TrEMBL record:
This is Ig-like domain-containing protein. It comes from Sphaeramia orbicularis (orbiculate cardinalfish). InterPro entries: Ig-like_dom, Ig-like_dom_sf, Ig-like_fold, Ig/MHC_CS, Ig_C1-set, MHC/Immunoglobulin, MHC_I/II-like_Ag-recog, MHC_II_a/b_N. It is a single-pass type I membrane protein. One of its GO terms (biological process) is antigen processing and presentation of peptide or polysaccharide antigen via MHC class II. It holds the Pfam family C1-set.
Length: 230
């Protein structure tokens, strides 16, 4: 557990040789977060604004815990209760400045929809603001929820995403505000032309068909020679 004046993080970990299941609960002055990870990958988190559990899409429906949201509300309540008891009893951990990496989910092809990912890592405390800009103008993201995931060293990481349609020359920026630190990472879009990409594929298909034709022709030629010899 880590404790500071306004934040309390509780992490229950089941650790074996084959897996590491972590249930992290953090609470702040007026909000909180509950997130469950498996070997560092998120299984689900509680969205207290929408009053629901948001499951990772790869988790089968048969594994969804029916009362997961009610349990999340309970542990958040307990977290705030412990915060009142432990408040001021421990010194705050050293602030860790976040590290930023911006990359695209798929290969960037002009006029094709894609996703930019801003990976924010190794920061503490888990109180942070992120925003995206396109050519210097702020843009809104679809999901404003920030899922802070605990690292083994006690710091946190999170992913912020932005859907975009690639256009060569566009400049996207991910800005992070943490404590008294502001960090900006810019990414210039260098998109491949869709026509050229299709031409490359078409050329590859033609070469494959050509080599296949040569192989078939050689096979029948050898068979014909054997037949004539017989």
């Amino acid at each position: 557990t880590n404790c500071c004046v306004n934040i309390l993080i509780l992490c229950l970990t089941i650790h074996t040789k084959l897996m590491r299941l972590c249930h992290t609960t953090s609470c702040f002055k007026s909000s909180g977060q509950v997130i469950v990870t498996f070997d560092g990958d998120e299984l689900y988190h509680a969205d207290f604004k929408k009053e629901e559990i948001v499951w990772e899409s790869r988790v089968p429906t048969s594994f969804h815990f029916v009362h997961a949201y009610q349990y999340a509300v309970y542990v958040r309540h307990m977290c705030k209760h412990f915060l009142k008891i432990w408040k001021g009893k421990k010194s705050a951990p050293t602030t860790a400045v976040p590290e930023l990496i911006v990359h695209s989910r798929n290969d960037v092809i002009e006029q094709i929809e894609n996703t930019l990912i801003c990976f924010i890592n190794h920061f503490f405390p888990p109180v942070i603001k992120t925003k995206w800009t396109k050519n210097g103008i702020e843009v809104e993201t679809e999901d404003s929820f920030q899922a802070f995931i605990l690292n083994p060293d006690g710091t946190f990481h999170l992913f912020s995403t932005l859907s975009f349609i690639a256009k060569d020359g566009d400049i996207y920026g991910c800005t992070v505000e943490h404590e008294f630190h502001v960090q900006i990472v810019l990414s210039t879009i260098k998109a491949e032309d869709t026509y050229n990409n299709h031409s490359f594929v078409y050329c590859g298909i033609c070469l494959t068909v050509g080599f296949l034709g040569i192989a078939v022709g050689t096979f029948f030629a050898v068979k014909g020679n054997k037949y004539q010899t017989s």
